[in-house]
Amino acid sequence: xxxxxxxxxxxxxxSHVEIIPFVECYTAEHRRAVVEGLRTWFAVxxxxxxxxxxxxGFKGLKQLPKLGETPIDILAGLKTLNVLNVDWSDGWARIxxxxxxxxxxxxTTIGVxxxxxxxxxxxxxGGRLDSRAMFAGIxxxxxxxxxxxxxxxxxxxxxxxxxxxxxxxxxxxxxGNKAAKFITGYAAHPRAAKAVDVQALRTLMVHxxxxxxxxxxxxxxxNPAPGRFQPFTVAQAKKHMEATGGIHLVQPxxxxxxxxxxxxxxxx
Length: 268
What we know:
Elements: E1 17-24, H1 28-41, E2 49-54, E3 66-67, E4 70-71, E5 73-79, H2 92-106, E6 110-114, H3 120-123, H4 131-139, E7 144-148, H5 162-176, E8 181-184, H6 198-209, E9 214-219, H7 234-244, E10 246-251, H8 257-266
């Protein structure tokens, strides 16, 4: 069953669409796949930047800023699982040092915090996070942080107050750093087919940070497999972006990183 596409107010004029591929890269084998994928992505019209998420130290990032003679702007991402404490009260100084070094390497000033697994103590188990430390910590970061999670989440049996608390954490991060933007996945959310009003969650997120501070991310596959999560096809993703405009991140996963790029170039 295909993902239902819903339009929303664009963060930029609808005539402008920017695609930013998003990929995680942790090993030498990953790096080879990422480099090959980026070569294909940068043959796609309008793609000039990519987010590459790595572990602490940005191993392998030196190989990515230029592929042959093709200029590439790499936006450095950090998987924060092993950096942030379980309650997010510590680790921010390491993140700040990490991004300062990455900016010197890449020449860019956007740093992406990939917090999905670092957020599990809260989002899955219901642990409490230190919102004051989050406010102070993100304030200390250089450049323009792009935060991938938290976003406003729906309640769950394990965490019945998750919607309210996730909203508080988003507000703390947004207030701590006025330059921060929030990567959100509401457009292709797997719960869209369930009894959850995804548009209502998105509206709550807009109320907390504002439309212009949200960067939508679409999960896209060439051959979406049936299951709990239903990603966009390439044709659906392109139609959605044309309808909404602005910056969109495209997250195919490493296995389909190059295949989605090739399909994107071929799909009208």
